[in-house]
Amino acid sequence: MKKYLFVFLLLPLLMVGCEEPEIKNRKPVVKTYEDDYIRISSWLETSEREKATVFEQGEQILLCYRLENITNDSLNVYYNLSYPQNWYNFGVIYNSDNDSIVARSAPNFEPGIALQKYFGPGVILDGYWTYPDGKSYKGCDYLPKGKYYVQCKPFWSYKINEVDTCPDFDERPEFRIDFKVK
């Protein structure tokens, strides 16, 4: 009888030990650059909009971006040139072990006429691309367990007081965010 009681009490503990532990610390990282007028940020999120660099296998990954006017002045932003489609390598996912490209976003933007748009004080332009189910990733699968990174060079261009501001490629920051799939 004592033997059965012991097994009966031990059984729930064994069952709990078989479940995958929930990720408690997502280790969020936000990469940011700012000049005198604009702040640019990039980070990763879960589909529940939690900033993260640790994901479960089969979980969507959101590649997020933000462009903010941090002044009290109005800017005219070259809107279509400031979207991530024009950020060098935005949306490319690399394998950390060998730097090979695991996923590349499909181009969904054709450069053409640079469209200026009013960008008032405190205005924010932000959004995200969803991997693997977003329209930018066609025919992609969820990432297997492993270590990965995303890396890009943001692009922005704006006009203030009739003067264009567009940093050279070498002057722009490079954002790299390492992440894991468990």
Task: Report on the architecture of this protein.
Helices cover 9% and strands 36% of the residues. It has one helix at residues 2-18; strands at residues 30-34, 38-45, 54-55, 61-69, 75-78, 93-95, 101-103, 116-119, 124-131, 146-152, 158-160, 163-165, 175-181. The strands form three sheets. The chain has a five-stranded mixed β-sheet, with no helix packed on it. Strands 1-2-4-9 form a four-stranded antiparallel β-sheet, with no helix packed on it. Strands 8-5-11-12 form a four-stranded antiparallel β-sheet, with no helix packed on it. A hairpin with a 2-residue loop joins strand 11 and strand 12. Residues 4-19 have low confidence and may be disordered.
Name the strands of the widest sheet in spatial order. Answer: 3-13-10-6-7
How much helical structure, as a percent, in the residues?
A: under 10%
- How far apart are the first and last residues' alpha carbons, in Å? 42 Å
Unreliable stretches covering 5 or more consecutive residues: 4-19
The general outline is elongated
Q: Helix/strand-derived class?
A: mainly beta
Largest sheet: 5 strands, mixed
Strand fraction: 35-45%
Mean pLDDT: 80
> Using only CA atoms, what is the Rg?
22 Å
What's the total number of strands? 13
Supply the number of helical segments.
1
SSE series: HEEEEEEEEEEEEE
Please supply descriptive tags for the structure shown above.
4-stranded antiparallel β-sheet, 1 helix, 5-stranded mixed β-sheet
